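Exam prep: given the inputs below (a chain plus S-adenosylmethionine), describe the expected output before reading on.
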Amino acid sequence: MRKDWQNGGFGLYIHWPFCQAKCPYCDFNSHVVNQIDQDRWQAAYKSEISRIGSETKGRTLNTVFFGGGTPSLMDPELVHAVMETIRATWRTSNSFEVTLEANPTSVEAGRFRGYRDAGVNRVSLGVQALNDIDLKALGRLHSVAEARKAFDVARDTFERVSFDLIYARQDQSLADWKAELSEALAMAADHLSLYQLTIEDGTAFGDRYAAGKLKGLPDEDVGADLYLATQDMCEAAGMPAYEVSNHAKNGEESQHNLIYWTYGDYAGVGPGAHGRLTLDGERMATSTPLGPTAWLRQVESAGIGEETRVALSQDDIVSEFLLMGLRLTQGISLSRLKALSNQDFSFKINNLEELGLLSSRDGRLRVTSKGRAVLNGVLRELLND
Ligand SMILES: C[S@@+](CC[C@H](N)C(=O)[O-])C[C@H]1O[C@@H](n2cnc3c(N)ncnc32)[C@H](O)[C@@H]1O
Ligand code: SF4
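Solution:
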């Protein structure tokens, strides 16, 4: 019988937790260190991949995602060795997607060929802004010119290129953002991730904000205007949103992220990496030690980098399925919801449809554009008893 995860596919996430410098807005699991023993990391990744492989024998792997941190600080030899282990562990799909996140500096662009030769076929560049003053304010180590050059090298090297921008920045007007976004759309990426700046606790921006020193951030209304303008401009340029913050040309959606959003199975390797794996008919949530040294030592000494493994309850599964799937423009399959849940959602769905926040047709449930503006409220309403 087909298992539920097969509706979403099977992917592998590999976390590289190091960066050259810590950006003031970032609360990802990323660290700045003096020395990295890449051979030790290579051995640990390989050992973890083999361990997970022995639990998922016979599966076809659809995607790999090297995320960070800054994976473009990895030696191409390390990526090569990891990819060899992956290919020896699983059969890979015909449309096998291998993404690596890269910072757009010239040094890193110099490694792109090596990554391609290792099997990477998609790169996601953290461009963040297309003006030098804002790049500086965001603590970035690259200029716009350097980012554009790295983008051109990526375009020449990889089949698929995506880049990230952060908007709703300090003192950014709607007109500024529109001008910048049209420059970004002219750059011929096939995928764009456009994130509104979030102020996270525990970051340098979080501290500055709490002290009242982070000025010029847009209020909620301006944020909503920026979001709507983003949707309209991307749509008009043939890069509609397929998820809240992600835009792609038709067929260029990130297959790896789609596994998360369509609630497939994924293994998480590396410090702080989460996984969702269906094993012996149960859906397991896995986690690993957050600290790079703690993770590395545990893999080396215990032969397993996993910290927790918990079987999800049916309620957990249904809420995760809805939380992830309703972020997508294509929404969720109602028959899959029915198969996963023993709850009848029709009353709640009807109410939210009457309010114009949800729409169900052709067997799918979607959040409308009105609903998207209050997505968290819609999800709360669906999931509350
Ligand atoms: C792991 S980082 C990307 C990889 C790479 N280290 C880089 O910075 O270019 C993933 C993306 O999340 C976004 N991001 C991180 N922190 C954010 C924040 N506080 N608000 C909005 N976007 C954020 C950035 O666009 C960043 O490119
Ligand atoms: S945004 Fe990227 S480069 Fe900056 S600290 Fe976070 S992961 Fe590192």
